[in-house]
Design a protein that fits this description.
- The complex is a heterodimer of chains A (234) and B (87).
- Chain A has helices spanning 16-26, 68-78, 88-95, 152-160, 221-232; strands spanning 4-9, 29-34, 45-48, 83-86, 102-104, 112-120, 136-143, 147-149, 164-168, 188-192, 198-201.
- Chain A has 234 residues and is of the alpha/beta class.
- Chain A has a nine-stranded mixed beta sheet with strand order 2-1-3-4-11-10-9-6-7, sandwiched between helices.
- Chain B has helices spanning 17-25, 53-67, and strands at residues 2-10, 41-47, 73-80.
- Chain B is built from two helices and three strands.
- Chain B is an alpha+beta fold.
- The interface between A and B is medium-sized, with 21 and 12 residues.
- Chain B: It holds the Pfam family PurS.
Chain lengths: 234, 87
């Protein structure tokens, strides 16, 4: 028996199939979930994928957050269900207040699409345990609304509690020289909730799981192997 | 029938690059003396029936939970008398 990991498709999701593929490559069973269906089909974990659900109307993630499937996701995430939000999925998680802060348009007002270097700041979450603490990885970043913002109190709390899970690598030799890609405060690329079962990030690990494509790296695969090991050994 | 207007603005401490881009274009258009521009959203809700206290309270809840994300935005709710359109 392997773990069953659900992937929600909202109207406008783009990366649901890639995410299913990444889950399969990691050795788990992907389960398609539909935004209008409250039933999570007894999955062991849920991924909210990237894309432009509802065209980013109102605010990115703001309308999807009220979809029927999210009612169940919110309820079960609070009870410990592992949930990963990638890009638009991260935006949905902040809109649903499962993660603190909010997402706004990139500070330079342009769409961004490139390989992005990150540092793993918290390898203790359910979704990051196959990384080394402090490991530097490169995975694609592609978004319009990638600027993470939060008030100073929230930022201080996230930093103090080690809840910044990923940070854009903006300085030092390993950085790509372009600096902070979107104006995110504290260079935050991803965060976790207090319990470590809910993680959200803007870059796309599901696009970096096969050596043949993209930047030729599999730096995103540990997201999916991390959760699989946790679920299988649970 | 009445119209209720909900205005949503980014909180003052949050950077508004769109507003800045507008502000930077102003001198080119010959508009001097405008030091800052911030851009927001305006929602016009056409309400069936009277806009009484209960209706306003419901709209306030709607604005707080959906039209604005109060983590990053502030909002105001105001009632606007709709001029009777000629029919």
């Amino acid at each position: 028996m392997t773990a069953r990991i659900g992937v929600v498709t909202f109207p406008g999701s783009l990366d649901d199939r890639d995410t299913q593929r990444a889950i399969r490559l990691a050795g788990a069973e992907p389960v398609a979930l539909w935004h209008k269906d409250k039933d999570l089909k007894q999955v062991d974990a849920v991924v909210l994928p990237g894309g432009f659900s509802y065209g980013d109307y109102l605010r990115a993630g703001a309308i999807s957050r009220f979809s029927p499937v999210m009612e169940t996701v919110i309820e079960q995430a609070k009870a410990g269900l592992p949930v990963l939000g990638i890009c638009n999925g991260f935006q949905v998680l902040t809109e649903a207040h499962l993660l603190p802060g909010g997402m706004l348009g990139n500070d330079h007002l342009h769409f961004i699409c490139k390989d992005q270097k990150l540092r793993v700041e918290n390898a203790g979450t359910l979704w990051t345990s196959d990384y080394e603490q402090g490991q530097e990885i490169s995975i694609p970043l592609k978004n319009m609304d990638g600027r993470y913002v939060a008030d100073q109190y929230t930022l201080d709390k996230l930093e103090a509690e080690g809840r910044v899970a990923f940070r854009y690598l903006v300085r030092g030799e390993a950085a790509d020289g372009y600096g902070n890609p979107n104006g995110s405060l504290n260079d935050i690329a991803g965060i976790t909730n207090e319990a470590g079962n809910v993680v959200g990030l803007m870059p796309h690990p599901e696009h970096a799981v096969e050596p043949l494509i993209g930047s030729g790296r599999t730096d995103g695969l540990p997201f999916f192997t991390s959760i699989l090991k946790k679920l299988v050994n649970a | 029938m009445a119209r209720v207007v909900v205005d949503v603005m980014l909180k003052p401490e949050i950077l508004d690059p769109q507003g800045q881009a507008v502000q930077r274009a102003l001198p080119r258009l010959g508009f001097e003396g405008i030091s800052d521009v911030r851009q927001g959203k305006r929602f016009e809700l056409e309400v069936d029936g009277p806009v009484d206290e209960a209706a306003l309270a419901r709209i306030h809840d709607l604005a707080e939970s959906f039209l604005a994300n109060t983590v990053i935005e502030d909002f105001t709710v105001k009632v606007e008398e709709v001029a009777e359109a000629a029919k």
